[in-house]
């Protein structure tokens, strides 16, 4: 059954206009009032017309003014975008067929709109659906994007500058994490790149660079959504990033995106599905030792989430060996991968295994503490405070599960010092989840004295 047309679609039909004509009329209205800097892309209204997405102000008011002029009577914003249940998208929906690059870019543009609100309207996939979407992506063959002839051309130096900006935004995320302000800013940058891809002309080499940047930014925005505890949006961004990267021949980036999905799946509680996703990443991974180390590390995390101690140990040791064998890292998107990162992930995985274990729990937690303690101290890993906060949370949990309350309070205090510069909602959520564990041990003097300090620090977030 066909979906009912949106209110905007019906109004445009009455006005004898289509989406592109609406964009032209909006731009003319803006330019006539000295607001040319707010011009929209000619394709922007498509998601408004087809899915009912509502853009940011002042665009709804401008559209209302334009339609009022064309129809000869007043049209309100509420008539164009009636108040209704928000549009929701499933993370893995609509990706099981072969899509052209242009369609993937449009889907990514639509996602930047639907995920932009305070509560992203993207539902997380089940483990089975996410794994199926990943496997479908391995066999998808996307076509190259269509060039927009006779339009202003993007030059190679401009593309290089945009790429350098992506690197800077990654570094910013390392420090501050997926706060909503940072997420909004990086999403707007992705939207700008998508507008260039759709509206400008470029040589094939520049087009490849722009598509690679779009895939990288989609990966970054996806990871920031994960860090903001928005699993559905994170999954969909990474699924689209993987398909775009694969479509332009960037198989390493595609494998890296699948590895990130395996990690997210592990923390979503998908168990064996996370392992299946990690195995798909391994099968599609090029022979670069640093990338293989990264993917194998994801497999270790997935195995731990599934309760597979032997699988975890095998993958974790192999990942560290692969990284040690690499002479020099050449993949810019894996700049952060160093021995300390794999050690930290192994420590976190051991805490996950220790939580599940009925036998060997104390040994697993002791091993986790040995790995996490050095890199969780105040001042450790100064370039990666968000990661250090997460390490500290897992270290605190390990101490609590081991009954080492004084050490748990010390680790939690060190983690709290990171909150002055880290906005990671995931990290803050993990800290809040420790509160009941501390409360259950409040008969201990060291814990009871710490709880007011702990509560005050979290109330300020």
Strand and helix map with partners:
Elements: H1 7-15, H2 19-32, H3 45-51, H4 59-71, H5 77-80, E1 89-90, H6 101-114, E2 122-123, H7 127-139, H8 156-176, H9 180-199, H10 204-227, H11 231-247, H12 251-267, H13 272-283, H14 289-305, H15 309-325, H16 339-356, H17 361-376, H18 385-402, H19 405-416, H20 425-439, H21 445-459
Parallel strand pairs: 1-2
Helix pairs in contact: 2-4, 6-9, 6-11, 7-11, 7-13, 8-10, 9-10, 10-11, 10-12, 11-12, 12-13, 12-14, 13-14, 14-15, 14-16, 15-16, 16-17, 16-18, 17-18, 18-19, 18-20, 19-21, 20-21
Description of the structure:
The protein has helices at 7-15, 19-32, 45-51, 59-71, 77-80, 101-114, 127-139, 156-176, 180-199, 204-227, 231-247, 251-267, 272-283, 289-305, 309-325, 339-356, 361-376, 385-402, 405-416, 425-439, 445-459, and strands spanning 89-90, 122-123. By secondary structure, it is an all-alpha fold. The chain is globular, with a radius of gyration of 24 Å. It has a two-stranded parallel ribbon with strand order 1-2. It folds into three domains: 7-80; 94-284, no CATH class; 338-461. The chain has 21 helices and two strands. The model has no long low-confidence stretch (mean pLDDT 88).
What's the quick description here?
This protein has 461 residues and is mostly helical. Helix content is 68%, strand content 1%. It is globular, with a radius of gyration of 24 Å.
């Amino acid at each position: 059954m066909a979906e009912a047309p949106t209110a905007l679609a019906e109004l445009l039909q009455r006005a004898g206009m289509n989406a592109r004509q609406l964009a032209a009329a909006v731009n003319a209205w803006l330019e006539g009032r000295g607001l040319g800097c707010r011009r929209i892309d000619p394709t922007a209204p498509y998601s408004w017309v087809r899915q009912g997405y509502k853009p940011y102000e002042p665009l709804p008011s401008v559209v209302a003014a334009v339609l009022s002029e064309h129809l000869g009577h007043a049209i309100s914003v509420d008539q164009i975008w009636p108040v209704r249940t928000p549009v929701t998208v499933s993370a893995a929906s609509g990706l099981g067929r072969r899509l052209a690059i242009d369609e993937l870019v449009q889907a990514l543009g639509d996602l930047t709109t639907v995920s932009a609100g305070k509560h992203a309207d993207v539902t997380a996939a089940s483990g089975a659906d996410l794994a199926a979407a990943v496997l479908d992506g391995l066999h998808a063959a996307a076509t190259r994007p269509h060039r927009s002839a006779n339009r202003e051309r993007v030059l190679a130096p401009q593309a290089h500058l945009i790429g350098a900006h992506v690197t800077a935004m990654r570094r910013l995320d390392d420090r501050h994490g997926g706060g909503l302000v940072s997420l909004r800013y990086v999403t707007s940058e992705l939207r700008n790149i998508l507008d260039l891809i759709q509206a400008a002309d470029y040589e094939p080499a520049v087009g490849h660079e722009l598509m690679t940047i779009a895939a990288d930014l989609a990966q970054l925005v996806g990871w920031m959504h994960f860090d903001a505890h928005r699993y559905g949006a994170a999954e969909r961004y990474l699924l689209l990033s993987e398909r775009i990267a694969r479509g332009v021949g960037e198989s390493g980036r595609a494998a890296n995106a699948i590895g990130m999905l395996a990690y997210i799946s592990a923390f979503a509680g998908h168990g064996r599905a996370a392992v299946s996703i990690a195995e798909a990443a391994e099968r599609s991974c090029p022979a670069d030792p640093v990338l293989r180390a990264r993917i194998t590390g994801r497999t270790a995390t997935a195995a731990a989430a599934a309760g597979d101690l032997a699988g975890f140990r095998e993958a974790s040791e192999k990942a560290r060996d692969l990284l040690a064998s690499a002479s020099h890292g050449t993949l810019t998107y894996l700049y952060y991968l160093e021995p300390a990162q794999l050690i930290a992930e192994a420590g976190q995985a051991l805490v996950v295994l220790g939580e599940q274990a009925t036998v060997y729990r104390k040994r697993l937690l002791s091993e986790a503490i040995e790995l996490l303690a050095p890199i969780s101290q105040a001042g450790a890993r100064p370039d990666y405070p968000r990661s250090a906060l997460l390490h500290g949370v897992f270290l605190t949990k390990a101490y609590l599960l081991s009954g080492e309350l004084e050490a748990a309070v010390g680790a939690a205090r060190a983690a709290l010092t990171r909150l002055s510069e880290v906005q990671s909602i995931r990290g803050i959520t993990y800290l809040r989840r420790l509160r009941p564990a501390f409360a259950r041990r409040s008969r201990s003097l060291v814990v009871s004295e710490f709880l007011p300090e702990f509560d005050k620090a979290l109330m300020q977030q």
